[in-house]
Specification:
Radius of gyration: 23 Å
Low-confidence stretches: none
Shape: elongated
Number of helices: 13
CATH architecture of the largest domain: 2-Layer Sandwich
Strand order of the largest sheet: 1-7-6-5-2-3-4
Number of domains: 2
CATH superfamily of the largest domain: Endonuclease Chain A
Largest sheet: 7 strands, mixed
CATH class of the largest domain: Alpha Beta
Length: 284
Amino acid sequence: MSTDYQQAREALGARLRELRLSAAGGRLTGPLLAGRLGWPHSKVYKLEGGRQTATGDDLRAWADAVGHPDATDELLARLRGFESHIRSWRRQLAAGHRPVQDTWNVAVDKARTIHAWEESVVPGMLQTADYARHIFLRYADLYGTKRDTEAAVRSRIERQAWLYRGGRRFHALVWEPALHALVCPPAVLVAQLDRLAGVIGMDTVELGVIPLGASLKVPAANGFWVLDRQLVIAEDWHAELWLDDAETVASYVRVWETLRESAVYGADAQNVIGRARRSLHPRA
């Protein structure tokens, strides 16, 4: 869990404790408050200690139980403040993959320039429908989530219309291992590689490939996207991070620009993609 996220959770916990100790009618002990709420008393201490993330319902109930319903809006604003940055997959995928893709579409639609780095998969903006379908199925299996695969694929493909609008620019960096990763059948990967080769030369796309043997100034770590140098979206196994403070965005931009120094473009990128394609022997 990120330090910023944990600090925000602890700050919210400290505020909850403050409200408990200044409860209308006199301070409340943890067990007394838990009794009012019908919770195990351990939940009170976990929330106050920043060891558990409160829900909106938790915060409303807490404010009412301590006699400070006027604090509800403040508490909910605090929760939105840090949950907007750390979006757990468990919560996001509760309704399936389509809503997550729709949220991405809104953010991408507003952007004019996007910088993307992917070390293990082809960037979503350049995926074929078949490739995207297998990616969604893999994650649905992993997280045990709702299988709204076809709706999610349609939403991701709809996003690619952005590439055909004037005044847009997509700067993508891909590590060569992503071109070999069999997260789909070989025949699907062949078609995906053909799609990648086909976008080289588009006036809205700059595709760089970092060969496996290239010297790297920084490790090829998690993928991330930078929208208009104002918002970073990065993925981890537990959550998706939406980060918009200037210092953090600047750090990701520096990482992207450092990785770019190892990339090849144009005909050289075509050669790397072609090498990956020749290594595949898809069955008919």
